[in-house]
Amino acid sequence: MEATTAQANELERRIDLSIAIADVEKEMEPRLKRMGRNMKVPGFRPGKVPFAMVKQQYGDQARHEVLSEQLDRAFGTAVTEQKLLVAGYPRLEPKATESTTHIEFTAVFEVYPEFVPGDLSAAEIERPLLEVGAAEIEKTLDILRKQRVRYDNAERGAEKEDRVVIDFTGKKDGVAFAGGSATDYPFVLGQGMMLPDFETAVEGCKAGESKTFDLTFPEDYHAKDLAGQTVQFEITVKQVQAPRLPEIDADFAKQMGVADGDVEKMRAEVEANLKREVKRRIEARLKDQVMDALLKANPIAIPNALVDMEIQRLMQAARQDMEQRGMKAKDMPLQPEWFAENAKRRVTLGLILAEVVKTENLQAKPEQVRAMVEDMAASYEQPEEVIRWYYAQPQRLSDVEGVAIESNVVEWVLGKAKVTDKAVAFDELMSQQQQ
Questions:
Q1: 261: number of CA atoms within 13 Å, CB side?
Q2: What is the mean pLDDT of residues 254-265?
Q3: Residue 435: is its pLDDT beyond 50?
Q4: What is each CA distance from 178 to 172, 230, 233, in whole angstroms?
Q5: Contacts for 262-269 with beta carbons within 8 Å, 24 or more apart?
Q6: Is 358 helix (H, G, I), strand (E, B) or coil?
């Protein structure tokens, strides 16, 4: 068994493996004898089948198994001796050879990149600042009230925030077009469910009124045959309902989970939850900037094998998400290229973070993990039960450890980069999309 190495590109490696045919044949005999013990042939008792018949039946299978095992051993020995950290799995290519004593292969594989974490002193990061006060609490309560809104019939023209139910028919050049008609269609004015000009036309109409108006679709409208086109809509308003927000009283407090209806207790819980959410969103925004800074400071090559594996993982997660939403994943064929960019970023960050954590000794400490678990549990009615749940299984705790490690990396980067504090508006922070 011999091995030689050649480098094809930055991360790809090639190792030539040579396996002696005599060694394969030597290992085949005891393997075939073991196979023969369970071989059933009419006229022979189990274990008494002639060796020649066993070899004829299982010879190819045994040779393949022995050769695979010897190649695995040869490859493992070669990469260990050369201290290569293999990424993914090797591809074995048979070599054309005239040798009658050896079988030769080339193992093609990739290795993990070796690098020193880059300098972050020039990185610029803005740290959002927001203090939660009375105004933010009132805005949050207002949002909670709107989430529990009820609607009452209104004997007046429709206004913004009203819920309307309409019939409508859209025609282009006098002919109804696909997707332009509906019956008993409900929507709330001002929420952007319909085009702005359409909503403007509905405003002021009372229940029972009909109206005809022209509407020009935007140039970038998703239906290309309608983009930039002027059509005519006929609408009949069947119902106008005004919103009725709940009062902030004992009943509202009970809806919010405060059993005794204590409004002040509810406000205190809303404030505590809001502060946690603001803290989480600020940390998420900081983390995004830190990860971008790490990527910019560490332009490393990454193994394609790891990217391909991550693409498959993301695709599987997407299928599971679709199934949970009641969709049939098989009805929507996913394309690997849809996930390629995200997979490349995730793999690159994973390699960079692993090196930074190892180099700077940023592993999660038990007390840090405990504090995070307690913080997450604090928003539940029985925090102790949540804490016990996390500590009941190592996998649950490892997820928290991953978050703790990321937090350590963020703090480390903030200590190296140029950080400036910048006040952020409450509405802006709370409306930003969270990943």
A1: 6
A2: 92
A3: no
A4: 10, 15, 13
A5: 267/137, 267/141
A6: helix
Nearest-angstrom CA–CA distance, 179 and 134: 46
Number of H helices, E strands in the chain: 12, 11
> What phi and psi values does residue 53 have, to the nearest 5 degrees?
-70, -40
Report phi then psi at 207, rounded to 5: -60, 130
**Residue 139 is which amino acid?**
K
Averaged pLDDT, 224-233: 93
Is the CB of residue 206 less than 8 Å from the CB of residue 240? yes
**Closest residue by Cα to residue 297 from 409, 181, 154:** 409
CA distances from 340 to 36, 57, 240, 304, 344 (A): 49, 45, 48, 11, 6
pLDDT tens-place string over residues 144-160: 999 999 999 999 999 99
The Cα 240–Cα 160 span in angstroms is: 11
Tell me the two tokens of residue 361: 């000794």
CB 280 within 8 A of CB 427: no
Count CB-CB contacts under 10 A for residue 349: 18
Bridge partners (DSSP) of residue 15 are 5, 107
Assign 368 a pLDDT band (cuts: 50, 70, 90). very high
- Give the rounded distance of the alpha carbon of 301 from its chain centre: 23
Using CA atoms, how far residue 408 sits from 122, 197, 302, 396, in Å, is: 20, 50, 24, 19
User: What 3-state DSSP class applies to 194?
Assistant: coil
**Does the pLDDT value for residue 214 go beyond 60?**
yes
**Euclidean distance between CA atoms 401 and 147, whole angstroms:** 35
Burial class (CB in 10 A: 0-12, 13-18, 19+), 370: middle
- Tell me the two tokens of residue 138: 């009132």
Identify the band that residue 327 occupies on the pLDDT scale cut at 50, 70 and 90. Answer: confident
CB-CB contact of 57 with 39 (8 Å): yes
Please identify which residue in the block is written with the tokens 């990149």: 113
pLDDT score at 432: 62
Cβ–Cβ < 8 Å for 56, 138? no
Contact 14, 6 (CB under 8 A): yes
Closest C-alpha to 310, from 347, 262, 335: 347
* Polymer length of the chain: 435
- What percent of the chain is modeled with pLDDT above 90? 71
